[in-house]
Amino acid sequence: LRINTLSCNSPFPSPFQLAALERQVFDFLGYQWAPILANFLHIIIVILGLFGTIQYRPRYIVVYAIWTAIWVTWNIFIICFYLEVGGLSKDSELLTFNISRHQSWWSENGPGCVKKEASMSGLKGLDSHSYISVIGCALEYRYIEVMHSSFQILIALVGFVYACYVVSVFTEEEDSFDFIGGFDPFPLYHVNEKPTNLLFKQTYL
């Protein structure tokens, strides 16, 4: 009964995992190495929290709850980065560890965006093209990234609340189970001791 009732109270349903995987896919497409590492760690912690919920290990859920605070801080930084708050620049190579000049995948593939290219001059026999600009975007890519991070913050806050709730449920059930004597094996032997002696006496008679 304890397993069936508490397994339904898992604070890590599929939307939490799907949101993390969706964020990871688009960061991979844009070669954003810092967000890729952060998302990978986030997915591991979400799985750890799910395992702790199923196996009734509050410590794992506490780890997830602590991580949500770090995750919220990281996403606030991403919002500030794309909005260029505090001297940050969305055109910098900070998120790629200064090893490439890649930007967000949405910068070229956002809703309505059309890439404008021109043939390279001075190179004979090559059909290569040189990237010029992106036009016609219905929404600037930095706002898409801001919405992604805002959504992650909202999910993290919901996960934190449910994680605290499940930890409190586990703690209450363990306290009530100890009070009843669920972990004390001696009463079982004392209760069964007297009837067994009576059965032996009856068999000898």
Describe the structure.
- There is one protein chain.
- With 205 residues, this protein is mainly α.
- It is 64% helix and 6% strand.
- It has helices spanning 2-7, 14-29, 33-54, 58-82, 106-109, 141-180, 186-204, and strands spanning 114-119, 129-135.
- It has a two-stranded antiparallel ribbon with strand order 1-2.
- The longest helix has 40 residues, at 141-180.
- Keywords: Cell membrane, Membrane, Transmembrane, Transmembrane helix.
- Belongs to the NKAIN family.
List descriptors.
mainly alpha, two-stranded antiparallel ribbon, 7 helices, 64% helix, disordered C terminus
Q: Roughly how many Å apart are the termini?
A: 43 Å
Number of strands: 2
Name the helix and strand elements from N-terminus to C-terminus, one letter apiece. Answer: HHHHHEEHH
Helix tally equals 7
What fraction strand? 5-15%
The stretches of 5 or more residues where confidence is low (pLDDT under 50) are 1-13, 123-127, 179-196, 198-205
Helix content: 55-70%
Q: Write out the strand line-up for the largest beta sheet, numbering strands in chain order.
A: 1-2
The major sheet is characterized as:
2 strands, antiparallel
Q: Which term fits the overall shape?
A: elongated
Radius of gyration: 28 Å
- Summed over residues and divided by their number, the pLDDT gives a mean of 78
* Helix vs. strand class: mainly alpha
Topology:
Layout: H1 2-7, H2 14-29, H3 33-54, H4 58-82, H5 106-109, E1 114-119, E2 129-135, H6 141-180, H7 186-204
Antiparallel strand pairs: 1-2
Helix pairs in contact: 2-3, 2-6, 3-4, 4-6
Organism: Nycticryphes semicollaris
Keywords: Cell membrane, Membrane, Transmembrane, Transmembrane helix
Family: Belongs to the NKAIN family.
